[in-house]
């Protein structure tokens, strides 16, 4: 019941594990808020000269401390370092490479026991020492290291939570880590073929009672007469509808003459491999009809057993068709008022607006940035594009583009600046001055540092349709592998779009 739905469970939370996840959260607060009153009291009493992660349980301790301390192992497993200067991070002993288990490094590299990550960074250029890394680490590890972003200015390394994109521990991610570590894959080996079936089942637009019925059938959990007989609850195992065969799942839903009539009426003439086959062969609507039919057949069977009410094949078919029609009527969405078309807007007087976007190629891990700066009249001041290698994701590509845009404002000495992009998460991080712990922390730190040097710098989010000019430049640059830097103009392939945006006549 507590297993994820995609492996055949119901997705219920285990209360015991959820409680441990809350304790992990308390440990995280002690670690990240050492100046809080609670953290100071606990530290003074239980680990005055050590860190929380290296603390010992001790004697005569409170139940509260025992509980938090017991969850410390889960906290350690989920934490990772965010590299900046690398002086606090051990190359082998600490977790610092994203999506990689550092325990494997010891089997490849034996000469880095006392090495710090700082020794892999060129402080003068704030770049990784590529030759050293490639010659020291296995190829797959070296690639991951070279994709870790470094800020232009060195800061202290920080601990972050690897289970959440934000780097901050949330109870849900702690529960997921705890639950995932205790799943026995061999226990679900027989259900491997059912994974796609379960995924398709739970996304159907049907009432939960119907989907749960199908789930119970997949695990043979329905109280058929054969199941009841095996559990010594009933002595009768004959099908109550036809009075002929033994009532198993297979018989009541496929072999019973009453059931066959229903399937024939609904044009399910042959069901070869039962649940998985039907879900594989049919479109979503036919899957819904199939599930509703099974639910109705089981309902008819229960009425026959408990109320002595019989419903023939044609009546069942009519009920199913009416029920599905009602479901379709509920799903029909009320037409929404058309939204006002959004387009690029001119900045205020004496202000420059710079728009940015990024294009990313996951196969080559290359990204291209498209940037256009315009004044209050909509005239282009410059257009710019650049290609970057060893980029981890689209998320990182957008952050790099925003950092380049911010630096461009400094280089051009524009005192009043609006920086616009369609990456909402990036814009939110740029607006928030709290310390970022995500994978793009290095880029966000640089953006904050650069923006503080500009007299008036604002970050604003715009819809993607209003950022098409920059998107096209980035895409064409990535496709053609040719960077641009044009003063007062844009590439010819976006000239018409530029004119339309300047006039404000684009939809």
TrEMBL record:
<dbReference type="InterPro" id="IPR036397">
    <property type="entry name" value="RNaseH_sf"/>
</dbReference>
<feature type="domain" description="RNase H type-1">
    <location>
        <begin position="355"/>
        <end position="475"/>
    </location>
</feature>
<feature type="domain" description="Reverse transcriptase zinc-binding">
    <location>
        <begin position="171"/>
        <end position="263"/>
    </location>
</feature>
<keyword id="KW-0695">RNA-directed DNA polymerase</keyword>
<dbReference type="GO" id="GO:0003964">
    <property type="term" value="F:RNA-directed DNA polymerase activity"/>
</dbReference>
<keyword id="KW-0548">Nucleotidyltransferase</keyword>
<dbReference type="InterPro" id="IPR026960">
    <property type="entry name" value="RVT-Znf"/>
</dbReference>
<keyword id="KW-0808">Transferase</keyword>
<dbReference type="Pfam" id="PF13456">
    <property type="entry name" value="RVT_3"/>
</dbReference>
<dbReference type="InterPro" id="IPR012337">
    <property type="entry name" value="RNaseH-like_sf"/>
</dbReference>
<dbReference type="GO" id="GO:0003676">
    <property type="term" value="F:nucleic acid binding"/>
</dbReference>
<protein>
    <submittedName>
        <fullName>Reverse transcriptase</fullName>
    </submittedName>
</protein>
<dbReference type="InterPro" id="IPR052929">
    <property type="entry name" value="RNase_H-like_EbsB-rel"/>
</dbReference>
<dbReference type="Pfam" id="PF13966">
    <property type="entry name" value="zf-RVT"/>
</dbReference>
<dbReference type="GO" id="GO:0004523">
    <property type="term" value="F:RNA-DNA hybrid ribonuclease activity"/>
</dbReference>
<dbReference type="InterPro" id="IPR002156">
    <property type="entry name" value="RNaseH_domain"/>
</dbReference>
<dbReference type="InterPro" id="IPR044730">
    <property type="entry name" value="RNase_H-like_dom_plant"/>
</dbReference>
